């Protein structure tokens, strides 16, 4: 009986061993099949990617070629345009030289402009104008102080304060303009001296 059980156990182990061997071979075959399919898919994907990259590269090269052609065309047009401008400028200078002959009037006009600027500067920065502003500011300050002390009507104080601020802003603006004109005139005289 022990012998029979040994034989059955051996048969069972042989059967199981054969089954496991067959299962291992099938699993290996399946893994190989899956690996081949994955490699095939990977090759197809890489081929598609390369084709896509090649088509994009070709499209880029074509667009770059078109852009280069347009740039060359624009450069040629620009060169032609500059040539026309030079030609017209030379023609204009030729005709200008033929009709040139009144520089004295230009000098007189610039002198008149300088005189007008000086007159404007003098009127903007005159002492009487400054004194009037100072007097008005003083009167407004006195009126504001009087309004604050005598009646608690803040509307009147606010209106007088707004007028006061406007006057001060005008004085500051005129002084600034006066100093700017003096600075620009000093710069011009220094340039003329050089």
Could you give the count of β-strands?
0
Radius of gyration: 50 Å
Task: Kindly report the average pLDDT value.
Answer: 81
Low-confidence segments: none
Number of domains: 2
Distance between the termini: 134 Å
Strand content: under 5%
Total of helices: 4
**Strand pairing plus helix content: what structural class?**
mainly alpha
Principal-axis shape equals elongated
Task: Bin the helical content.
Answer: over 70%
Biggest sheet, in brief? Answer: none
Instruction: Sketch the topology as an H/E string, one letter per element.
Output: HHHH
Could you explain how this protein is built, in words?
One of its GO terms (cellular component) is chloroplast. The chain is an all-alpha fold and 194 residues long. The protein has helices spanning 2-99, 103-124, 127-150, 154-193. The longest helix is centred in the first third of the chain and has 98 residues, at 2-99. It is elongated, with a radius of gyration of 50 Å. The mean pLDDT is 81.
């Amino acid at each position: 009986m022990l012998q029979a059980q040994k034989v059955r156990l051996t048969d069972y182990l042989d059967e199981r061993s054969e089954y496991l061997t067959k299962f291992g071979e099938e699993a290996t075959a399946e893994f190989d099949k899956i690996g081949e399919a994955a490699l095939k898919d990977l090759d197809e994907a890489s081929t598609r990617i390369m084709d896509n990259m090649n088509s994009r590269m070709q499209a880029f090269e074509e667009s770059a070629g078109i852009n280069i052609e347009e740039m060359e065309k624009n450069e040629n047009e620009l060169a032609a345009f500059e040539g026309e401008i030079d030609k017209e400028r030379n023609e204009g200078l030729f005709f200008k030289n033929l009709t040139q002959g009144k520089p004295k009037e230009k000098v007189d006009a610039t002198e008149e402009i300088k005189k007008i600027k000086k007159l404007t500067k003098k009127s903007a920065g005159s002492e009487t104008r400054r004194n009037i502003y100072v007097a008005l500011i003083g009167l407004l300050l006195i009126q504001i102080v009087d309004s604050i002390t005598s009646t608690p009507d803040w509307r009147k104080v606010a209106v007088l304060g707004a007028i006061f601020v406007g006057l001060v802003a005008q004085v500051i603006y005129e002084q600034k303009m006066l100093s700017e004109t003096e600075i620009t005139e000093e710069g011009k005289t220094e340039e003329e001296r050089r």
